[in-house]
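Why does this matter for the project? Reviewers at the last site visit asked to see concrete outputs rather than summary tables. In response, this paragraph embeds two records directly. Each consists of the residue sequence and, immediately after it, the corresponding structure tokens. Nothing has been edited or filtered.
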Amino acid sequence: MSDFSQDEFFMRQALQQAALAVEAGEVPVGAVMVRAQTVIGRAYNQVELLKDPTAHAEMIAITQAASAIGDWRLTDTVLYVTKEPCPMCAGAIALARIPRVVFGASDPQSAGTITAAEVQAGVLEEECRELLQGFFKTLRAQAKDSDPQ
């Protein structure tokens, strides 16, 4: 499998996680940690569910991956995530020594925060962006409908 088709394959799995986030009422970000073409961690945002500001998809998937291999050094892994990681997650990526990160939709607020890894941006970008935009459009419409003006 070529890098491009492999990236799309695993990004689709991250998109499945993001879809689970939507069902849970969470911001639709999904992440998948891969080692030797095997998924060793997968998660979606769970900030609201866990009432934990650090419960981002990337953080949970990194924790699962470290547990799966029995080491916090994830030197031979790839992180696939539907949205460009925030500075907190970029820090965790660096600390875990993840050598490669592949993301879908860019985030202007997080641009350039990943400096300790090779980055592949824009994989299935349109699908990732549409999921995020659709979620926030629905959220705004619900807020407007419940406004007691």
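We now turn to the second protein, recorded in exactly the same manner.
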Amino acid sequence: MKPEIDKTAGKRLTLQKQAIIDVLHADERMLTAEEVYGRVREKHPNISLGTVYRNLQGFSTQGVVRRTLYADGKARYEMAGHVHHHHLICLDCGGATEVPWCPVGNEVVSFMAESDFSPVSHQFEIYGHCKQCREKKK
């Protein structure tokens, strides 16, 4: 399913923007901006890395793309989709496994209500070492 891009802000969906979305839509992994840039350049060799960064930021703000900051300091991007999820992230290979439920429990929800806080979004990632990487080290 192709994502809905908000065009109400007066911004048109250019071929370059569509190419960025297509790259993220085609890969189930989370990709760095540099990886997205490399793949988009195959079809649009004149695109700049700055253009990719700006558009990923814009898509993230719109909620079309989800940005996750890894422990190495690099952000990874994926299509936001309609399913809220979190990740287990391997510090060795960078692989990510989706956590199929939200760990924000009733205690946090109650605290937000008591604090009269209205959340917009949240992220939850657990960093560690996947089974394959641990076995490689043995």
